[in-house]
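Hi, here's the filled form for the chain we discussed.

Project: internal
Contact: R.S.
Residues: 237
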Amino acid sequence: MTRILVAGLVLATALANAQESYDRQRAAMVEEVQEFAAQIGDLRGGFSDAVLAAMATVERHKFVPAAMQRHAYENRPLPIGYGQTISQPYIVALMTELAEPGDDDLVLEIGTGSGYQAAMLSGLVKEVYSIEIIPELASEASDRLERLGYANVTTRLGDGYYGWEEAGPFDAIIVTAAASHVPPPLIRQLKRGGRMLIPVGGRFVTQLLLLVEKTAEGELVTRQISMVRFVPLTGQH
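And the returned structure, exactly as it came back:
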């Protein structure tokens, strides 16, 4: 009994130390992302307190494979299997900020991946709908988000090019894979006054992160934000 108790205490201490280490690393990551934003200049005024708080709260190490957890809080993309990556923290924060999430918003994400971007949005909006085309990732992300308590995130397996019409229209749409063009179904599912963030370009050419805004009159206004590098948007389109 004594040995079991001691072993339990040792394990509990090790887990507590690991958690404290991750917390420190996450706080350092948030500072690095802020500094990076100031250097790059993609944002006027930097990140909002809400987005920084979300980044400081969501435990990125729980959204990467075990072998990558020691790198979880580095400001770079990481492989998550099946030829996919979890985006660079700065890019996740940038796309979240530019989407201008609000408490009553419905947001569509194209490309669930490991679920990190959806988790970031979860605490900032009313509902997140996220589509993943790779069955294994879709299943893993759904289980992970449910296990971690992100109750306002709904995921499904499907081709994100066509969006999620029955759940829309959406206040914001975030596409986490590079398309050759802005998909018309996503434009239709974007509310008037809504915003879409989407990388456009091919795998081996320059990709541009675009901010597409739909005016109150239904017109589209597109602005180039920065050069980026994403995995390609796949599907039958």
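Let me know if anything looks off before we file it.
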